[in-house]
Amino acid sequence: MANDAAINGYSEEGKYITLISSDGFEYVVLREATEISPTIKSMLRNPFSESRTGRCDFPEIRSVVLEKVVEYFHYWYKNRDKDDVPDMNIPVEICLELLMAADYLGLDAKPTQPAIRD
C-alpha cells in the first residue's frame, strides 16, 4: 500500500541520497545526516524531482566545497549528541565558498529546538 507522500509524487524512501557538484562529482550521503540542511530537507520532502530520484544537483557548488559540506554532514551526524566536539579542519582557500554554500544550504542558521508542551 502506497503512503500519501508516494501518491503525491514524492517519497522519503531510500537511506542514502546523492549530492552532485557543479563539476559533476557525486557524493552518496546518509539521508538523515543531510537533514540538518533545511534546503536539502525541503528538496527531499516536497514534490520536487529530487524527492523522486534521491539526487540533488548543486550547479553553484564546486566539488572541493561540496566534499567539505558532505564531510560536515557526517561530522555533525556522528557528533550530534556530544557536548565537547573538536573543530573541523577547513582549508583557508575555500572558506568564502564554503560560507556561501553553508548560507545557501541553511547551515548557518541556529538549529531550532522542538517546542516544549505542558
Automatic annotation (TrEMBL):
Function: Essential component of the SCF (SKP1-CUL1-F-box protein) E3 ubiquitin ligase complexes, which mediate the ubiquitination and subsequent proteasomal degradation of target proteins. Controls sulfur metabolite repression, probably by mediating the inactivation or degradation of the metR transcription factor.
Protein's GO biological process: ubiquitin-dependent protein catabolic process
Annotated SKP1 component POZ domain residues: 16-75
Alphabetized PANTHER family for the sequence: ELONGIN-C
SUPFAM superfamilies the UniProt entry points to: POZ domain
Location of the protein in the cell: Nucleus
UniProt organism field: Cladorrhinum samala
Family classification: Belongs to the SKP1 family.
Keyword NADP tagged: no
GO cellular component terms listed in the entry, alphabetical order: nucleus
Keywords: Nucleus
Protein name, entry field: Elongin-C
